[in-house]
Design goal:
There is one protein chain. This protein has a domain of 208 residues: NAD(P)-binding Rossmann-like Domain (Rossmann fold, 3-Layer(aba) Sandwich), CATH 3.40.50. Helices cover 41% and strands 18% of the residues. The protein has a seven-stranded parallel beta sheet with strand order 3-2-1-4-5-6-11, sandwiched between helices. Strand 1, helix 1 and strand 2 form a beta-alpha-beta unit. Helix 3 packs parallel to helix 5 and helix 9 crosses helix 11. Bound molecules: nicotinamide-adenine-dinucleotide and uridine-diphosphate-N-acetylglucosamine. Uridine-diphosphate-N-acetylglucosamine binds next to helix 7 and strand 8.
Length: 331
């Protein structure tokens, strides 16, 4: 298939480009490089031996998107082009609502105008709010605590309403749990600007000596050891989930959790990292981070049954691959 990957230079998008190329698809990437670098495209080529067509364009620029769609006959679109920092979304709500919602509107409009039948959207487990675990696709959504989360709820709703009246389109809303790790080559991974907010990038920076110690946000949750529990999945498994969705979805809207179905606490992840890499990670327990929930993990039976996808890589691979990538970064 001929696939447009919006946000394809980013962390999850770049790994998905590799998975798509390896599965024999043709890939065009549109990215404004706001949170990524052009060099990523070279890394994709090194891994796969194949090039992608690249447009440095903002997806909210409808005229520029018209040009791209008119130059290709796409079979499908994957929409990763979002801003994703939760704290920043509280400080800059208008920028987040504009970027994340308008990008969805423009891409859906292009798919309607140019008859592109498959649409895969990057949603998040954050839409479940503080529901009872495991989170299952049929649950009513509880309110999210920040504008970022709301943009995911709104985009899902827009795409559901779109599908009601454009019933030849096949739409997958993929709710990611916590992607971590990197491509096993060490050529692709996650390199956030500034001090990382998320746990694994922070841990690899501690291991490298860029941060003095990990701050564990709370050990008084009702969990196995009092620290927060999440469903960490390898970014390459997540990438393969997108290929499965593109191949299998039929007309209508389909919602899938992409996770492993297993919960891991912060301290369990620290221990797994230490064992996998033979490195001690100094940490201190500090207060809870506002907006955090105690536990978040997926029920993955629907995606396994309908898409035939399950996460294959374990925590050891996630920790080794994340650390391999961090070591290759220059600073
Ligand atoms: P990322 O920031 O690494 O990648 C997003 C890419 O989109 C970047 O390359 C950025 O430059 C580009 N982009 C953003 N807005 C754009 C626009 N208007 N036009 C063109 N390009 C634009 O983030 P990621 O971790 O790869 O996440 C991808 C998607 O998955 C996002 O929508 C994010 O909200 C969602 N998601 C991520 C996680 C996670 O833990 N990383 C979890 C759940 C959902
Ligand atoms: C966060 C976002 C979520 C987003 C996801 C991916 C918040 C509240 N939630 O999820 O909306 O979809 O990132 O971008 O920001 N932790 C520490 N110390 C740290 C960092 C994290 O103890 O320095 C703990 C957290 O309290 C949590 C776990 O590690 O229990 C995972 O945190 P993180 O990686 O930030 O992911 P989420 O909070 O699950």
């Amino acid at each position: 298939m001929n696939i447009l990957v919006a946000g394809g230079a980013g962390y999850i998008g770049s790994h998905t480009c590799v998975a798509l190329l390896e599965a024999g698809h043709t890939v065009s990437v549109v990215d404004n490089l706001l949170n990524s670098k052009i060099e990523i495209l070279e890394q994709i080529k090194k891994i796969t031996g194949k090039a992608v067509v690249f447009y440095q364009v903002d997806v909210t620029n409808e005229a520029a998107m018209e040009t791209i769609f008119s130059e290709h006959m796409f079979d499908g679109v994957i929409h990763f082009a979002g801003l994703k920092a939760v704290g920043e979304s509280v400080a800059k709500p208008l920028e987040y609502y504009y970027n994340n919602v308008v990008s969805t509107l423009v891409l859906a409009k292009m798919c309607r105008s140019y008859g592109v039948k498959r649409f895969v959207f990057s949603s998040s487990a954050t839409v479940y709010g503080d529901n009872k675990v495991p989170f299952i696709e049929s649950m009513p959504l509880l309110s999210t605590t920040n504008p970022y989360g709301e943009t995911k709820v709104m985009s899902e709703r827009i795409l559901m309403d779109f599908a009601q009246v454009n019933n030849h389109h096949s739409i997958a809303l993929l709710r990611y749990f916590n992607p971590i790790g990197a491509h096993e080559s060490g050529l692709l991974g996650e390199s956030p600007n500034g001090v990382p907010n998320n746990l694994m990038p922070y841990m690899t920076q501690v291991a490298k000596g860029k941060q003095a110690k990990l701050r564990v946000f709370g050990n008084d949750y009702e969990t196995i050891d009092g620290t927060g529990v999440r469903d960490y999945l390898h970014v390459c498994d997540l990438a393969e989930g997108h290929v499965a969705a593109l191949n299998k979805i039929t007309a209508g809207v389909h919602i899938y959790n992409l996770g492993t179905g297993c919960g891991t606490s912060v301290l369990q992840l620290v221990e797994a990292f230490e064992q996998a890499n033979g490195i001690k990670l100094p940490y201190e327990i500090v207060g809870r981070r506002p907006g955090d929930i105690a536990e978040c993990f997926a029920d993955v039976s629907k995606v396994a049954q309908e898409l035939g996808w399950t996460a294959k890589r374990d925590l050891v691979a996630m920790c080794k691959d994340a650390w391999r990538f961090e070591q290759r970064l220059l600073s």
